[in-house]
Description:
Elements (H helix, E strand, L loop, with lengths): L1 E8 L3 H12 L6 E5 L30 H6 L2 E5 L3 E5 L4 E4 L4 E9 L3 E3 L12 E2 L4 H10 L5 E5 L3 H12 L3 E5 L12 H13 L3 E3 L4 E6 L5 E6 L4 E3 L2 E4 L3 E3 L2 H5 L4 E2 L1 E3 L11 E3 L4 E4 L7 E3 L3 H15 L11 E6 L2 E7 L6 E5 L7 E7 L2 E8 L2 H13 L5 H4 L13
Parallel strand pairs: 1-2, 1-6, 2-3, 6-19, 8-15, 9-10, 9-15, 10-11, 18-20
Antiparallel strand pairs: 4-5, 5-6, 7-16, 12-13, 13-14, 17-18, 20-21, 22-23, 23-26, 24-25, 25-26
Amino acid sequence: xxxxxxxxxxxxxxxxxxxxxxxxxxxxxxxxxxxxxxxxxxxxxxxxxxxxxxxxxxxxxxxxxxxxxxxxxxxxxxxxxxxxxxxxxxxxxxxxxxxxxxxxxxxxxxxxxxxxxxxxxxxxxxxxxxxxxxxxxxxxxxxxxxxxxxxxxxxxxxxxxxxxxxxxxxxxxxxxxxxxxxxxxxxxxxxxxxxxxxxxxxxxxxxxxxxxxxxxxxxxxxxxxxxxxxxxxxxxxxxxxxxxxxxxxxxxxxxxxxxxxxxxxxxxxxxxxxxxxxxxxxxxxxxxxxxxxxxxxxxxxxxxxxxxxxxxxxxxxxxxxxxxxxxxxxxxxxxxxxxxxxxxxxxxxxxxxxxxxxxxxxxxxxxxxxxxxxxxxxxxxxxxxxxxxxxxxxxxxxxxxxxxxxxxxx
Length: 410
């Protein structure tokens, strides 16, 4: 049986960064990295933007050159999954029934695209935007498909809609809730992006529940039927309704968790010598009033990888990184810092009609997050305000001409 001093499960940003950091910080033991994909680790955010638009070749998405992994003694086990973990024996079993031993295990399994749960959900012509293979399949139908239905008004759906609209496609965006980005942003940002997409020809349908995917005799999707009976005809359907965290083997082995796997301040699970990082790891965040949550971002993946690696190397530093995110749609750059989930007040800096504004989220007067549209200075200066939980003069905070760093304390 092969044995690794550190075995990493998952070839996304979190798993790749953990392997890279282990070597950068002089870990001398053996490292194995198991990935369900056959590709070497690559950037995920461009998949719904530059890569889908055909503006960036896949080779430019690779996190490191292919030779990097072997040159640094990191054994890549590609196209393979883990089906079981024996935490007492420090051993995993792959889907090819190969046992692998480990000293430390870093679980960076991420998640899989959440499927629709309605009649027709298994039809041909339904696409997700999670992996290179997903987007390659979608790109293959672009030449002949002119009508697209996108289910889900989160960032993935909006970014895909922007790319397809720029390519001249007819796009209908379907969101079950009453506004876009409802789970992550306030109404001001939701309304702005709805108007923006509509101005680019996207048919945005809100409060629109999907009843079924309509299919032809060959079981190929021909459209989406809504709960009110409306039929949205489409040559292809893109589903962007979130992810299902890949934690099955961990939970079956006894790890604590539910929506993801629970981790402590050092990214340790409740199982001995097993860490979890990235999209699948649920941690208590001081930026969300201590609630336990998963954060799906490159920042979180990279920072949690560092936390786990430093703990393995005997230099523990608790995870305390401020969350940040970004999204590019058309000529708009949205930059977010902090988490708005616990806010009780919002202040808008600037006029959304100018396409350059920020939304500042407060909790009991303290700054907890900012959404900045084409206002990079607000994003940069707002970061310190979120970290400090600053309490600022509201009138000055609303003055878009006053730099955030010059706003007086309340």
